[in-house]
């Protein structure tokens, strides 16, 4: 639930700052990019905090090999995507590519959420019910697609 709150609050704050005249966040897509970036910094960094990392490793479906490496890889991809979301559009289309890539990453990581909802493996594992997690994941994907398509 915390990532959703971060996304919504930071996006609203960024847009409010844009309404005060800061051009960088003068549109909803730009403000949403900032909200997503902060959210992905939070979630990406959590892949490297020992207790959270153990929970993420525990929810990697057993069919996937090297769960520790996959958790590290997804954390790095989230952090890189967050950084790219903050690159102004004037510099190039990196923000669009990052938003699309993060939407794909969210879809690719979703099987771990399904597995987690069915097999609690660790006290540190994410424990959001599948229906709620699916709804949040849809919001995250929609926000990423909004940034990509409306930027």
TrEMBL record:
Its transmembrane ranges are 28-49, 70-89, 95-117, 129-150
Keyword annotations for this protein, in alphabetical order, are: Membrane, Transmembrane, Transmembrane helix
Q: Which domain of life is it from?
A: Bacteria
Give the protein name, as stated in the record.
DoxX family membrane protein
């Amino acid at each position: 639930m915390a990532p959703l709150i971060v996304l919504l609050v930071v996006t609203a704050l960024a847009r409010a700052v844009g309404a005060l005249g800061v051009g960088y966040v003068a549109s909803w897509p730009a403000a949403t990019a900032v909200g997503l970036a902060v959210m992905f910094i939070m979630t990406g960094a959590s892949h490297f905090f020992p207790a959270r990392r153990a929970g993420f490793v525990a929810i990697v479906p057993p069919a996937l090999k090297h769960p520790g490496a996959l958790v590290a890889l997804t954390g790095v991809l989230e952090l890189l995507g967050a950084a790219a979301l903050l690159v102004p559009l004037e510099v190039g289309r990196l923000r669009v590519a990052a938003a699309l890539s993060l939407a794909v990453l969210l879809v690719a990581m979703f099987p771990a959420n399904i597995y987690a909802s069915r097999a609690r493996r660790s006290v540190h594992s994410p424990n959001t019910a599948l229906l709620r997690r699916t709804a949040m994941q849809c919001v995250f994907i929609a926000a990423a697609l909004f940034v990509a398509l409306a930027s």
